[in-house]
Amino acid sequence: MKVLVTGGGGFLGSRVVERFRAAGHDVFVARRAEYDLTSSEDTRCLFADAAAELVVHLAAEVGGIGANRANPGRYWYANLMMGAHVLEQCRQSGVDKLVVAGTVCAYPKFTPVPFQEDELWNGYPEETNAPYGVAKKSVLVGAQGYREQYGLRTAYLLPANLYGPRDNFDLETSHVIPALIRKMVEGDDEVVLWGDGSPTREFLYVDDAAEAFLLAAERYDDPAPVNVGTGAEISIRELAETIAELTGFDGRITWDTSMPNGQPRRALDASRAEAAFGLRARTSLRDGLEQTIAWYREQVHAVR
Fold it and tell me: Looking at the whole model, is its pTM more than 0.85?
């Protein structure tokens, strides 16, 4: 098929492009530098250039807790507009199917663990990333509406927190795993982390996430959203200790309890994905961390 991948130059997007090409698809990569999807005109030009039958919408503006707190308006606007423009251009261009990346941040703050898809609307998201989460959840409503009214086949995936080689290691905008790896590999005497370390998270290796998007594109045709994860939950404190062990970091880990913890717990029930399109994540957290640390060390060595 002719496939358009928005955000195809990004962390997840580049892996999705590789996976679709390996499966024999003809992939058009949309990068932010070439097409601004918050612009309806740029989005129209992109769809005219791509002439795609299938669209995988991964483009997003996102970061860790600090970036979400600094950009609530921008993250709400950008993610909502990108999703709306992509949906409308799919309709106008006669696209056969659209696969959308949602976010675990869309779940209510106190969702029972493990998160089940039917809980998505049973409360308001955690405050620090609510604008981003609500915007992405609105795109789900749009996707379901376009399916019902216009017949646009859509699939909406809710991946757990992603990590892996080629992640964003910028300390201003990165998520917890790349930030911890960078700080600990650089060998600081002290690493200061926000909160008290008690919140839990679930992490999904980026190659497993890319496989999920391919399988959903080829096998899933239902308006219901689908969790994509491992089902394995780990506290931020235990995560920090594991990364310290794997990197050989022997400095001090300090918890700044004046800063927010974020959502108390996150872990997904991924049974729907396995039943619907055969997805089962293959990479354990420890193996994935070892591969990510090795990749980052190679980059640091190459720069030096």
Answer: yes
